[in-house]
Amino acid sequence: MTDGPAVDTRPTKIMFVAEATAHGGRDGYVTSQDGQLDLKVAMPPQLGGDGNGTNPEQLFAAGYSSCFHNALILVGNREGYDLTGSTVSAKVGLGPNRQRGYGLAVALSVSLPVVDADLATRLVDAAHEVCPYSNATRGNIDVTILLG
């Protein structure tokens, strides 16, 4: 897939707002306004922490994989396919960038055992256009999609 001219993917209407608050950054905790989320956050050992808690990259991976999977199910349903048994896993990498800050890279692994490879590719490409996480990250971070 080639990136063409910039497409405006901003919402035309806000249908839902999620709210979360961080306390203590990467060595603290995060909570959601509705109380559904209350997690300890800790630096992973690879970044010098004890790893005794989740981290922002795991939370991003969980959000992106579930959002992309939902987009995949949606486009599958629109075309008349039942994607029961499909999964999406996300790996989120963190590292320094050229501007003395940090950047992310994402690898999505998609398993579609109920459809052939050509159809799987078409559905994944369509989901990548529908998914809000894909739309938010397009052009900002490298996203690799692997079909397996």
Automatic annotation (TrEMBL):
A family per Pfam: OsmC
Domain of life: Bacteria
Gene3D superfamilies assigned: 2.20.25.10, 3.30.300.20
Residues spanning the membrane: none
InterPro entries associated with the record: KH_dom-like_a/b, OHR, OsmC/Ohr_fam, OsmC/Ohrsf
SUPFAM superfamilies noted in UniProt: OsmC-like (SSF82784)
Family from the record: Belongs to the OsmC/Ohr family.
Protein known as: Organic hydroperoxide resistance protein
Naturally occurring in which organism (per UniProt): Streptomyces iakyrus
Upper lineage: Bacteria, Bacillati, Actinomycetota, Actinomycetes, Kitasatosporales
